[in-house]
Write a structure and sequence with these properties.
The chain is built from no helices and eleven strands. The chain has strands at residues 15-19, 23-27, 32-35, 39-42, 49-52, 58-62, 71-76, 83-89, 95-101, 105-113, 120-126.
């Protein structure tokens, strides 16, 4: 992916490759991408922490297989534009199901159906969702 904090040839990245129903490769450690793009396609070897300031409403889709438990964090820094993340995608590179990340918010997703040609992601966290408060109990 372009627009990373350092050019790809300037980064040292350790990769792991394995099989579980299908071959997959991913970077061992989290990688960060900063971008103003309005369209991104992610693979399991790309950055999984996205810090975005899109120049318009943005769409993010995935391509290829992802291992179960793969986590993608997306922070939308723009004041008014939203970012749509494809929870599922199709062969035509279109979003089948998506989650919209509002302006100035963040969300995290985990791959729940893995090693398929079109993996499925589920929402882990959205910072616009109220956090439940724990009540204090006395004895």
């Amino acid at each position: 992916l372009g627009s990373t904090t350092a050019a790809d040839n300037e980064k040292d990245v350790l990769y792991y490759t394995g099989t579980h129903a299908a071959r997959f490769t991913r970077s061992v450690f989290d990688r960060v991408l900063t971008s103003t793009a309005t369209s991104l396609t992610l693979t399991s070897t790309d950055a999984n922490i996205l810090i975005l300031t899109p120049g318009g409403n943005a769409n993010i889709i995935t391509s290829g297989t992802f291992p179960a438990g793969y986590v993608i964090h997306i922070r939308n820094l723009h004041a008014s534009n939203y970012v749509r993340f494809a929870l599922t995608s199709s062969s035509s590179s279109t979003m089948v199901t998506y989650y919209e990340i509002a302006a100035a918010t963040c969300a995290s997703f985990v791959c729940t159906v893995s090693h398929a040609s079109y993996p499925t992601f589920s929402l882990l966290m959205d910072d616009t969702i109220d956090t439940p408060q724990l009540a204090a109990h006395t004895r």
